[in-house]
Amino acid sequence: MAKALLKEEMPALDKKDLEILKLLQQNARMTIKEISEKVHLSTTPVHERIKRMEESGVIKQYVTLLNASKVGKGLMVICYVSLRQHSKNAGEKFIKGILEMTEVLECLTISGEFDFMLKVAVADMDEYYNFHVNKLSNIENVGNVQSVFVMGVVKMTQQLV
What we know:
About 35% of the residues lie in helices and about 20% in strands. With about 160 residues, it is an alpha+beta fold. Helix 2 crosses helix 3. The chain has five helices and four strands. The protein is elongated and about 55 Å long.
């Protein structure tokens, strides 16, 4: 099925690295100068640390987080999906189909009753119905889909440190 998450070699991160990461997670537009003032280092070592963390994959990318309802994606749905067959080929076909769907924000392989958990953002129930019936259910080998509609968000973060 999906590639298992391999334990990658963790780069050595010291206290200053973690401080820099925390600041960047709060505001990725913060300048090197602003960061250096907050972590009490000069700009050159801060720049070198950030570059090292980018090159080692600690920093994967910089993004802008949007307000879903203000961009017409106010309905969030968690979909639990099980496949009928569990061969490597069947899993790869499912994953290929999911990767092409812009409605799917996240796709996680999970344990338990279902094989995958999807986080889906759409405008409204009509758009979700269309997604479910005409896209998700049309992927070869989809067995069971259970949809859970998000009624409110208590906490949503991407901050790891």
